[in-house]
Amino acid sequence: MCGRIAITLPPDAIRAFFAYAEQPNFPPRYNIAPTQPVPVVRLEDSHDPAKRQRHFVLMRWGFLPAFVKDPKDYPLVINARSETVVEKASFRNAMKRRRCIFIADAFYEWRRREKKASEPFLIRRKDGAPMAFAGLWETWPGPNGEEVETACVVTTHANGTMAAVHDRMPVILEPEDFDTWLDCEHHDVDEAAALMRPCDEDILELWPISTRVNKVGNDDAEIQTPIDPQSLDAETDPAPAPPRKQRAKKAMGQGDLFG
Predict the structure, then answer these.
(1) Rounded distance between C-alpha atoms, residue 104 and residue 178, angstroms
(2) Is 109 a catalytic residue?
(3) Domain covering 4-245, topology
(4) 176 DSSP assignment
């Protein structure tokens, strides 16, 4: 799974990597959590090839299918399993027509320990480049005519590096695969589905970090500092509740990721 992400690289470096049209300027975020606005890249729907540009868009992290009547009665869906997105009713249409890429440069995962607190890890690319997570998006039509754009990360089984921490990981795309994932007009579901696999073993690096990351309010560079795993036994911050058990009870506005 993927339940917390970070975006800390300079905006110019991120824009160069993803090649989107906008030039947003934003401060680093070290601890972005579900229900918050997240930046994604999507391709503008246009039959004119010259206008099919990539765009930077903020969306609510927590996918809501259009058929949902009341978000309070629907689970908070932050991840979609690659094994079922093609057939599952909640994701099937988005997989065909609304694929996006989550922007990040690190994410966090928790390793369960028997009779001890879960151990948080930071995971990032060894080359220091941004991370591109395969995602799906959907516009949820509210009862009062409002429209909220929502998104989730597509996950797959863990590669050898990630398996030491968790059995799932985000689908991490390489730049040469961006067009195949984003261009739903010219690349069908089968082509996109072929990208839903673990990244190569040598792409990622990870290390244990403090349980300060467990609290969303802790949003600073210190939470990424490597620590001695033995020190975790002296920490008391509880791990975040599993997102699958949460409900979408927060306000449904798009919000401001960097405000």
Answers:
(1) 15
(2) yes
(3) hypothetical protein yedk fold (3.90.1680)
(4) G
